Amino acid sequence: MENRKSVEALHIDREGSGTRMEWTAREFPLTIMLNGEQLVTVLCSPGDLKALAAGFLFSEGMIRAKEEITGLTLDGERGIIRIRTATDKTADGKLFMKRVLTTGCGRGMAFYSYADLDRKKKIRSDLRVTPAEVLALSRRFQGASELYRTTHGVHSAALCDNREILVFAEDIGRHNAVDKVLGRCLLEGIAVSDRILVTSGRISSEILFKAAGSGIPVIVSKSAPTDMGVELARELGITLIGFVRGGGMNVYAGEERINLSRGEPGAAPALSAAAGDEGSSANGE
Question: How many Cα atoms are found within 13 Å in the side-chain-facing hemisphere of 179?
C-alpha cells in the first residue's frame, strides 16, 4: 500500500499565491483481531502492518515470543489483521475494550499503566556507547526516511548497534514506528538486547515501557523526554539520551553506559558539523 498521497493545496508566499500538488502522509485505520476478538483500532501508516500488529502485542506484554503466534493474516482491503495465539488471550476481558488508538502524539491510549512498573524488571546490559557513536547514528537515522523528506508528516524509529541501523520503520505515530521495529525483530528473530532504540519523537512513559518490555537498554532521540519518561528510565535502568543535535546531547538517565574515556570527547566535534544539520530534516515533535 502506498504510504503517501498527492493532494491539492493553495500555496501562499511573498511572491503571491497559487495552487500546487503536495505530498501528504496517508492515515490508515487498522483493526487488530486477537483470537477472534476485536482488540483495538490503530490509526497508522499503511506499511509493515503485520510487524505493527505483532510489535503492538509484544510491546504490550501480550506475547513474548514469535512461537506464540499460530496465525497471522492481513485483509488489506478492509484494514483488518487477525492474529491467533497458542494460548487464549481473550480470557482477560479487560484487554478488549475496543478502544481506538490515536497516532500517539499526546492522546494515545495503551493497556499499561504506571502501576505496571512493578512488573518490569530492571534492564541489565553491558552495552556501552560513546558520544561520537550516538552522533553518528543520529546522523544516519535522520537521513534514512524518504517518506519524511517528501511529506514531513511521519515519525521514525530504528534498532541499532553501536555503528549501524539494523531495523528501520516509519509511521504517522511515534508509538507505531517503535512497534513496527519491535514487530520486525520478533518476526525475523532479530535480538534486541544490548541494542539502541533511536526515535524521532519525544520520549514519554509509554516509549519507556515498550523499551523495558523488550529489554532494550539505550534510547536516543533528537527530541525531549517527559518528566515521567526520565523517572521511569532511572527506575528501569535504561540509558535515556535526548536533544541529540548540533554535536551535543543530554543524558537524563543511565549515564554509566556512556563511555567518556580519555580522548573520546575530541572525536565528537568531527561529527558535529553533520549532526548540526539534523534540525532541517528531522521528523520530531
Answer: 30
